[in-house]
Amino acid sequence: MPTESQTRTGAVEPAAPVPAPRGARILGTVLLAGGLFLLWTAYRAADGDYSISGPWLAPLVVTTGWVVLAAWYLVTQFRTPPRPEPAVATESAATTEPAATTESAALTEPDATTEPDAAAEPNATTEPDDEPVAAVRWLPPALLSAALLGYVLLLDPAGFVLASAVFFVACARILGSRQWIRDVAVAVPLAFAIYYGFTQGLDITLPAGVLPL
Amino acid sequence: MNIFGDLLGGFGTVLEPQYLLYAAIGVTLGTFVGVLPGIGPALTIALLLPVTFSLDDPIGTFIMFAGIYYGAMYGGSTTSILLNTPGESASVATAIEGYQMARRGRARAALATAAIGSFVAGTISTLLLTLFAKPVAALAVEFRAADYFALALLAMVAVTALVGRSLVRGLISLVLGLFLGLVGLDELTGQARFSFGTLELLDGIDVVVIIVGLFAIGETLYVASRLGQLPDRVTPLEPVKGGFGWLSRQDWARSWRPWLRGTAVGFPFGALPSGGADIPTFLSYTYERHRAKNKAEFGKGAIEGVAGPEAANNAAFSGVLVPLLTLGIPTSATAAVMLAAFQIFNVQPGPQLFDKSPELVWALIASLYVGNVLLLLLNLPLIRLWVKVLQIPRPILFAGILVFATLGVYAATNSVIQVLIAYGIGVLGFFMRHFEFPIAPVILGAILGPMMELQFRRTLVLSNGDLSVFVTRPLTAVLLGLVVVALLVPFLPRIVARLRGRPATAQRLAFGEDD
């Protein structure tokens, strides 16, 4: 199925083939499955209580809407994108799209070229969403999520100051910082400042943890 | 019914030294956080909410919030102009011309026309708010549950349909928000909905958790996936060239009409349920470009293209306060956060607010005037400080945002599970941004959904389960008709443009993305 639609897409626009919106299809499928699960949850919990002023009308309406919309979204991802009009596309992008400013800036300043803008252009004319062509890196957000998880789990046992300082340095590292000393020099005073600011100044309790604070 | 007596009373409160201090703190904090790239007013307020938990003075807190909001807006325009990273879609229009002006050595002029234009627009629109708020509240007393239901539906659908590029994606965002709003105990019957047998979910998901998750966590994860693709060079300020307030005589001559026109567009659009400042800023930009004598200058740094949208942005905020204060209906993501802040202090905005807590309302309105003046005094002289803030290295900045986001949720809920929920919503927000789903409908859905359901059921209880009340009551029927219109509007420009044989370029711009 995906290959077939891919070739069809290629036939429509041979010069610049639209990438298969694989991610969007996965998303659509996940949304649909999630919606069905929630609809089923609501249906089971309602247990036959469909009175319009009862507590289960809204959940059933919302989850039904979810399922319908997710299906609609999924279908648009499998449909061949409408034939783009190249002349029109460039003109509209050049005159009005905010991307165009970055683009014109890029002419004089090559470093400023931002990939998402270039990728956003096909989206301007074709309705279904393609994954942005730009190099999307999945590792940093995944690592960041893991760091967040570690942070919140450490918060109570290790205390706010220690957990925050460690997390801060790790997070800066994941986001591309290579200056350990600077990061630590920011992280430690910041963590202490927040801790004392909130516990002393604003009377909000934060876990003290292992440090004798 | 003496509005100006009430307003004077408000000024009497606000001008007390302690409240002036609150206003000054709010304005400074708001600008500081708003200047940080990628942070809009909604997140600014959400992140700063914990700061106010220990204050037991609602008046002082709301004065601070007004300051924070204005500050965040000013800060956002600074970031848009100097760094070309608008923190919210309402600043996108400013960034188009503002950044170009800055690149051509006119950063000060751009910042000045934004700041002074915001001041002019803020003052005029606050005056309009002063005049309109009480009469609208008096009208709103007539509103019944059915009308509130229709109005909430209209506010939600209008934002979803008018803001954002794709109706399906907007509606999915909305449904997501509605679902998040459903989690927890049903208010009327006490039945647990979507709590999956856990105690933690019985209390529902706090709006603060949703906002911090979507904006702070989601945004940072999104940035992490696109490291090195963001502009991080701050355009340097040119030396002061003279002229009053950094603007030459010619700049003033070119700015003042766009300021007034921006105000004229911004306030009504803000007051109507149409998604706050996104549409008026783009309308103002488009209009100024069409009117400009020298069209070629647009895209290369035309001052009108900064003056108009910035004025519209500011005026829209006062406009948004009209339905928020008089009806309790938020029409933008930021207004939804403001409503959450109100609810923390057990203040329920609505027609009764003007009778129940007049001193609070009028102090809030008076503080808008004061906040505007404070900002003008703060923003331009302190611009070097704000540029320094802009130069904070990205890894440090986003690490800090994550720490503060975690702190914000933890301080608000005192629960690790809620922090985890915020993270989960953040991951969701990351995928939403990746696939270009708008964020604002989620927040409006989460806050308006429960309100809508309550009014719907209340209506049916009053009518003994008779659904026809929704069409027989004229006001309700009109509002529900507008919902249908709002759903059709996004398709109108396309149809009209097709008929004229042109692509819908002008309207496309009006579809801002997330908030």
UniProtKB/TrEMBL annotation, chain A:
Where along the chain is composition biased (Low complexity)? 86-110
Q: Which Pfam families would you find in this protein's record?
A: TctB (PF07331)
Q: Which residues cross the membrane?
A: 24-43, 55-75, 142-168, 180-198
Q: Which residues form the DUF1468 domain?
A: 27-207
Domain of life (superkingdom) = Bacteria
Keywords (alphabetical) are: Membrane, Transmembrane, Transmembrane helix
Positions of the UniProt region annotated as Disordered:
82-130
Coiled coil regions, renumbered to chain: none
The answer on whether this UniProt entry bears the keyword NAD reads no
| Protein name per UniProt | DUF1468 domain-containing protein
Q: Which organism is it from?
A: Plantactinospora mayteni
Q: What is the lineage of its organism?
A: Bacteria, Bacillati, Actinomycetota, Actinomycetes, Micromonosporales
Automatic annotation (TrEMBL), chain B:
**InterPro entries, A to Z:** DUF112_TM (IPR002823)
**TM region positions:** 20-49, 109-133, 145-163, 168-185, 205-224, 320-345, 360-380, 392-410, 476-497
Domain DUF112: residue ranges: 20-444
Record keyword Membrane present: yes
Does Transmembrane count among this protein's keywords?
yes
Q: Which UniProt keywords are given for this protein, alphabetically ordered?
A: Membrane, Transmembrane, Transmembrane helix
Entry-linked Pfam families: TctA (PF01970)
Q: What is this protein called?
A: Tripartite tricarboxylate transporter TctA
Organism, as annotated? Plantactinospora mayteni
